[in-house]
Design brief:
Blueprint: H1 3-50, H2 55-85, H3 93-102, H4 106-120, H5 125-133, H6 142-156, H7 160-167, H8 179-191, H9 195-208, H10 217-233, H11 237-246, H12 249-252, H13 256-269, H14 273-289, H15 297-309, H16 311-346, H17 352-371, H18 377-383, H19 388-392, H20 398-401, H21 409-430, H22 432-452, H23 462-477, H24 492-508, H25 514-535, H26 538-567, E1 579-583, E2 589-594, E3 598-599, E4 608-612, E5 618-625, H27 630-647, E6 651-661, E7 669-678, E8 681-692, E9 695-703, H28 712-721, E10 723-724
Antiparallel strand pairs: 1-2, 2-10, 3-4, 4-5, 5-9, 6-7, 7-8, 8-9
Helix pairs in contact: 1-2, 1-24, 2-3, 3-4, 4-6, 5-6, 6-7, 6-8, 7-8, 8-9, 8-10, 9-10, 9-16, 10-11, 10-13, 11-13, 13-14, 14-15, 17-21, 21-22, 21-23, 22-23, 22-25, 22-26, 23-24, 23-25
């Protein structure tokens, strides 16, 4: 499957998986049907990519599934929200019905039931209210949805007392109400002059936006609009001017005439009656001349005349109370807003170390991809990939260098994206020195896990990045000071989901090592747990940062020194020194191979032997009788092998060299080199045909490289050592 297709499908898998986690967190019971649909799509996309279906087919199926189960329901919900904001309840039903049918869930069915009532009784508000009210007492979140619809009905009918009675649940604090409920309660309290309760509800609304579940752009815009109306009603004109000058997104969405009108209302309610009246009258006059503002005119006129007609009463009874409330609560409101803005500013993550790591990893990885075949075992050994065998032989530098090598662009891009996601929040929370220590410690831990499980070769920054992931989970789970400011970007369900996605990619993609993933996760989690008491002390944190920086410098310096000092002595397989004699089960023949190569017991018989090397190299030995001429045997062999390769769907023949006579090895020895491409990677097959009288011996080397010449010394030594025990013939 093409690289671009795989990358796009992984992005789609990520989005579906995130939706599953988000819905599960909201309440699996209420969304179980929809979650099941999304999970089926999630598994289908994984199967398509794991089975390597046609890229176009896999992407098309994925996009169709996303369109039906994700995009269309989102579009329908936005249409429903738009109609509700315009109080067009009777038009919601078709959208709610389609959403309930596409995204199966009890909550969507409940919404459709309400929408059917709105369509049927839209012309009879009293009957509609009674029918919707009958849907109460089902429990949350169904009752919350029902109450919001009741609130909309009351708001549309300007029945604010009824709105308060339905939305304000007895014994429930303002902070326990949903964001939507608070929006309507604030307005209802303001309209009914219950200003003390309006302030409590607005403060709860301001605090609500710090909750990650209520921190979307849309909700923040609605909060800002509510804040504007709140300040206008209470006559807090100077506070409202500051809000207007802030350029908040919610205000930018409103027509200029409406914003100017609310400023006029604020002036009037602040006791500056003439200025306020003049400002409102000017806006109404101008709005009447502009057709685009005609929808706001009835509201503006009604509000204007209501204020002017009750000016004396307002001045005697209401204004003193509003001034007292301003003196008592203005600082608290502004501090709450300031804390919220400060939290947003502090949550802007630091990313200097993350950016340096990202660009360094990308630069080194891309350079290596362009200069070497990173699917070639000889190249991977040379450039510093991790290897269980070589690390145990003393090449410890690989535990560091492997983190800058990536086997393919998908591997690199997934790690870079993950690093950009997890890096800045962790860097902000613990500081760049500890961040670097955490990153490389996790990478080394992942490398050691790969060594422990015997991985022949592994590469990539996945272990280090997943160490950051597990650290983020630990910090959030234990509510480390400062972690709450990053929760909007780094919430628990997202972290768990990305963890699962990375493990899936590790299982599906070739060359991605899940044992390193698990090791990196464990390393990051253990170090994060150790850091919890340290981060609470500024002194200990500085000491830990000092140790981390010098630890990283020592690790990098010693690794680079060992890598380049060892390169002069040559890399495996050139520097193999110890060979061992290996015999088949019946001692019919023997051959000298590197001591690290092991016999495959299942293929050890009277006439054959197979031995496997530390990098999954394989040598296969067959013996048999031969009565034909050497030329005919070689010609038939080449023809037969070529035909078998050409018929294979998994192997591509790139080139063939030979047959060539190898008289310098032993009499009657011919060599044929086959360069193949198997499953996207290089494979060299080197055949040695040894003719000795009526006997024919075939020694075949299978090596995952296109540079089989690197193994020439090993292969020639082995072929020279081959011995056939004629006494057991």
């Amino acid at each position: 499957m093409e690289l671009a297709y795989r990358l796009l499908i992984y992005i789609l898998i990520a989005n579906v998986g995130y939706m599953i986690f988000s819905l599960s967190r909201k309440g699996f019971k209420h969304y179980s049907g929809y979650i099941s649909q999304l999970f089926f799509l999630f598994c289908l996309m994984i199967v398509l990519i794991a089975r390597d279906f046609s890229g176009g087919l896999a992407l098309s199926v994925s996009l169709i599934g996303i369109l039906i189960l994700v995009l269309f329901p989102i579009f329908l919900q936005r249409q429903i929200d738009a109609l509700m904001s315009e109080n067009r309840f009777a038009e919601i039903e078709p959208y709610a019905r389609w959403k309930a049918n596409l995204a199966w869930s009890e909550l969507n069915v409940h919404m459709h039931n309400i929408a059917r009532l709105a369509e049927e009784y839209g012309e009879d508000p009293a009957r509609l209210e009674a029918e919707v009210r009958a849907l109460l007492d089902r429990g949350e979140p169904y009752d919350e949805m029902t109450r919001i619809f009741l609130g909309l009905i009351h708001f549309n009918n300007r029945n604010f007392e009824a709105l308060i009675n339905d939305l304000r649940v007895a014994g429930k604090g303002f902070d326990q109400h949903s964001f939507e409920e608070l929006l309507y309660l604030v307005r209802a309290y303001l309209e009914t002059t219950r200003y003390d309760e309006a302030i409590e509800a607005q403060l709860a609304l301001e605090r609500k936006i710090n909750d990650p579940e209520d921190a979307s752009i849309e909700k923040r815009a609605n909060l800002v609009i509510s804040r504007m109306i709140f300040m206008a009603f209470l006559g807090w004109h100077n506070d409202l001017l500051k809000l207007m000058e802030s350029g908040e997104e919610g205000l930018e969405r409103l027509p200029t005439s409406l914003r100017d009108f609310w400023l006029g209302v604020a002036l009037f309610n602040a006791g500056r009656y003439d200025e306020g009246e003049k400002a409102m009258a000017f806006v109404i006059k101008k709005a009447g001349e502009e057709q685009d503002n005609e929808s706001w005119l009835p509201f503006m006129r009604k509000r204007f005349f209501g204020l002017v007609e009750n000016r004396d009463f307002f001045d005697r009874k209401v204004l003193p109370h509003l001034q007292a409330l301003h003196e008592k609560f203005s600082d608290q409101i502004q501090n709450t807003i300031g804390d919220e803005n400060q939290s947003a500013a502090e949550a802007v993550p630091k990313n200097t170390a993350t950016n340096v790591l990202t660009w360094l990893t990308m630069a080194v990885s891309i350079y290596l991809m362009m200069s070497f075949n990173v699917e070639d075992i000889v190249s991977l050994v040379e450039i510093g990939a991790n290897s269980s065998f070589l690390v145990l032989e003393g090449e410890y530098f690989r535990l560091f260098t492997y983190q800058f090598i990536h086997i393919g662009l998908i591997h690199l891009l997934m790690n870079v994206v993950a690093l950009k996601f997890f890096g800045p929040p962790i860097e902000t929370l613990v500081g760049w020195p500890i961040f670097l220590g955490l990153y490389f410690f996790s990478g080394v831990a992942g490398g050691l896990a790969a060594v422990h499980t015997g991985q022949p070769l592994s590469a990539g920054a996945s272990a280090a990045v997943l160490g950051l992931l597990s650290a983020a989970i630990i910090f959030e789970f234990f509510s480390i000071k400062g972690a709450e400011k990053l929760s909007q970007r780094n919430n628990f369900s997202t972290l768990i989901f990305i963890l699962v996605i990375n493990l899936i990619i590790g299982a599906v993609e070739k060359g991605v090592d899940n044992s390193a993933h698990v090791g990196g996760l464990a390393g990051g989690a253990l170090l994060a747990l150790a850091l919890i008491p340290i981060l609470s002390s500024a002194l200990f944190k500085r000491i830990a940062g000092f140790v981390a920086v010098w630890g990283c410098i020592f690790l990098a310096a010693t690794s680079i020194w060992q890598m380049f000092s060892g390169a002069s002595a040559g890399h495996y397989p050139q520097k193999i020194a110890a060979y061992a004699q290996i015999r088949n089960a019946s001692d019919t023949f023997s051959i000298d191979l590197p001591a690290s190569w092991k016999i495959d017991a299942g293929e050890n018989s009277l006439q054959s032997l197979e031995v496997t090397g530390p990098f999954r190299e394989r040598v296969s030995i067959l013996i048999g009788l031969n009565e034909d001429s050497v030329e005919k045997v070689i010609e038939d062999y080449v023809t037969q092998r070529t035909s078998e390769i050409e018929k294979s769907r998994e192997i591509i023949l790139k080139s063939r060299r030979g047959p060539e006579l190898m008289a310098n090895l032993r009499t009657g020895t011919y060599r044929i080199r086959w360069l193949l491409n198997a499953s996207g990677g290089p494979l060299s097959v080197v055949d040695y045909l040894i003719f000795e009288g009526e006997m024919l011996f075939l020694v075949r080397f299978f090596i995952g490289t296109e540079r089989d010449i690197a193994y020439d010394e090993l292969m020639n030594h082995s072929v020279k050592s081959f011995y056939f025990n004629r006494g057991l013939k």
